Amino acid sequence: MSMNSVPVLDAAAVARLLPMRECIGAMERAFRALAAGQAVQPLRLVVRLPDGSGALYCMPALLGHGEDGALAVKLITLFPGNARTDRETHQGVIVLFDASHGGVRALIDGASVTAIRTAAVSGLATRLLARPDASVLAMLGAGVQAGSHLEAMLAVRPIRQLRVWSRTARHAREFAEAAFERHGVDVATEASPESAVRDAHIVCTVTAAADPVVRGEWVAPGTHINAVGASTAGTRELDTALVLRSRVFVDSRTSALAEAGDLLIPIAEGALTDGHIRGELAELVSGRVAGRTNEEEITIFESLGLAIEDAAAALYIHEKLNAAS
Questions:
Q1: 175-181: long-range pairs with CB below 8 Å, 24+
Q2: For the residues 230-241, what does the mean pLDDT come to?
Q3: Which single residue of 30, 170, 226, 256 could bond 250 by disulfide (Cβ 3.0 to 4.6 Å)?
Q4: What is the pLDDT of residues 265-296, one digit of tens each?
């Protein structure tokens, strides 16, 4: 195939071809394939800048096989400091290959796929772990992932109240206004993480925090938490007391035990062992492990992001593009 004929899909095309509800379905199928042994999911390669300002992630994966499969790699940078500028924190590209012959099938904007598929996976975990009547959502963080996570939570639970907290009060106000205008949800900005979290039914942490923004004593029994923002071994959003109180699930044990500070720091403290992880998302989806076992349990989904999520999203986008042509 000539590279001249390879479709290049920007953020607008991704948003059109990968709506949240459809992406949640694509993520469920991807994790079912992973549970069935129909995926190759190596640990991502990370190149960190010496000054700690950013990193390059290389995330390859194979999902399925032959013409129906997805062979893909995402190359994406993460520069948290960009949040203070007009640049995106995540920037990159997904290359989708033909799994039968190796040809390039599409080049897809990586940041927009990451924003949607990350939230879709949290939506899938929430559907499996949160109480069915969960309706009060606390959003800690007001960036791109906050917006996509709100969409995902609305897709899987009857959210009637949204509480928003951000370190920058202006960002929280702007997010709250946009959320009300777009979704019509009852929304309030909060002065502290504690006031946002207390008595919430679902908590999404989508911050750039290095130290805990949620403490165990704030969290009510029965709460479900999607921990998304911290993605290195030395950073965390949840304190040790909260992790100890909770039933913890991860997207991948291998990834979590290499990169999830929410777990690795308590393990280093001697507060828990890797046995505290109750299961992976693929095991939940396939029914191999039990999720929530009673109404009082606190559940945590620790999200780091897997390359199969990008491969599944890229394949879905490509198939929709072809169907429309």
A1: 175/139, 175/142, 175/146, 175/147, 178/147, 179/147, 179/150
A2: 94
A3: 256
A4: 999 999 999 999 999 999 999 999 999 999 99
Residue 3's pLDDT is 60
Whole-number percent of the chain with pLDDT over 90: 87
Sorted by where each starts, the structural domains of the chain and their CATH numbers stand as 3-114+308-324 (3.30.1780.10), 128-305 (3.40.50.720)
Q: In one letter, which amino acid is 90?
A: H
Residue 1: per-residue pLDDT: 46
Q: Which two tokens stand for residue 172?
A: 């929280």
CB 119 within 8 A of CB 148: yes
